[in-house]
């Protein structure tokens, strides 16, 4: 900077010194009025002026650079502050968005039970029904009479035969087991569509559950996902079963939860009670080195026990018994010499406390059950309460009510469509859940036999809505309107609603296939029903409908 100022001053001084007016006119060495001298002086003056301008421009550029360097930290600091402010606004916006989304989901879950009861809500739905020819009352009545009604007698005879044989088989199983070391098997109970009288598609399969308990002095202590256990979202509806001694207080002492150290002993429990040999717990069907009941071990034990029991009583029967499915512990098949066969499921379960909720080692009714990495997690089934609820509500409905008829027709249509286009994510359990929701939402008179067509449309529209939202809540879990007469455990009524369609959120391929199958079923509905129905004049609609139901 100082060098540049010195150069400018030097140029100015030189110009002043060399200016012609500084020389006296009487100086005899200068030729006055000489044009050549004047021209040279002008040229010299012009070159000096240009040099001055150049130097001034350089000084201005250097000053600008100096100012830029001085302001650079301020600009960086301002940009950082601006970025921080922008990040704060972005984070605040995200928090507000997440709060709104959580509120929206909580609001929807809070009113999940108020669906289906209002005609205005149903009128908004049904987009997939545009252009679909829905069968009239006469066609539905004829279809129900010819295709479905005749199967009721077959189901009753099959239930009677299977129950008698299962009781004999379980009695033989108790005789071959060691009462002091093996699990104690109780009487079986029938659940599912065969015992709720809505099974329509063959082959008919009876579902029997068999409660079992550990030998004395042991007992089962269970923990569910809604009782404070740490279960991830994909394991909602599951629980664990711990094998303990009957005199062991697992909740009142911390010795089982905290490492006391080698030089410390629990005054309530001796070392013999707190540390058990690994072989002893494995004999009690526990997972290796734990006290938790292992579903895989239970499956192996039950299959071996059933095989021994059958070998003891096989001479009494003129048929063969075998396991029909490798991944199901009690999927059995009776084979007669004539070539006919009867399939039934005999599944071991563990009772939850003193209720009729059961932990089930295998859940054959759900194709969307999560594939758990641990075999110590057991699925809970509410099948006994579902059967009781249907029986309880049926007492309040009109004679020949159409609720079972709707479920049978829907189950038949879906099964027929799956046989044509392949399996989908929907199961008969989902269809039954839809019926249970609508049974609670609609008044009793809406289920009169002449309203079969309207209620069937309601079930289809409700199912369409659930598929669109990917939300179908379990009927009992989180439902505070369960009738008190059922004696349903309050812990499950207060739990968060369980979405049976959650796998659709995680598996887009299954969801897309399920929706396509549902829409295809709607388009083919008339053709599927007319295949089993003869033409009926419209004038005979009411009479035939009443006679068929």
UniProtKB/TrEMBL annotation:
Question: Which residues lie in coiled coils?
Answer: 31-72
Task: Tell me where it mainly resides.
Answer: membrane
- One Pfam family, short name please? Mab-21_C
- Name the Gene3D superfamilies for this protein: 1.10.1410.40, 3.30.460.90
As for what it does, the entry says: Enhances Ca(2+)-mediated inhibition of inositol 1,4,5-triphosphate receptor (ITPR) Ca(2+) release.
Q: Name one GO molecular function term.
A: protein kinase inhibitor activity
- Give the record's membrane topology: Single-pass type I membrane protein
Q: Where is the signal peptide?
A: 1-15
Q: Which UniProt keywords apply?
A: Cell membrane, Coiled coil, Glycoprotein, Membrane, Nucleus, Signal, Transmembrane, Transmembrane helix
- Where found in the cell? Cell membrane; Nucleus outer membrane
InterPro entries, per this entry? Answer: ITPRIP-like, Mab-21_HhH/H2TH-like, MAB21L/cGLR
How is this protein annotated for GO cellular component?
nuclear outer membrane; plasma membrane
Q: Which residues form the Mab-21-like HhH/H2TH-like domain?
A: 404-477
Looking at the record's lineage, which domain of life comes first? Eukaryota
- Keyword field contains Transmembrane helix: yes
Q: Which protein, by its recorded name, is this?
A: Inositol 1,4,5-trisphosphate receptor-interacting protein
For this chain, the family text in UniProt reads: Belongs to the ITPRIP family.
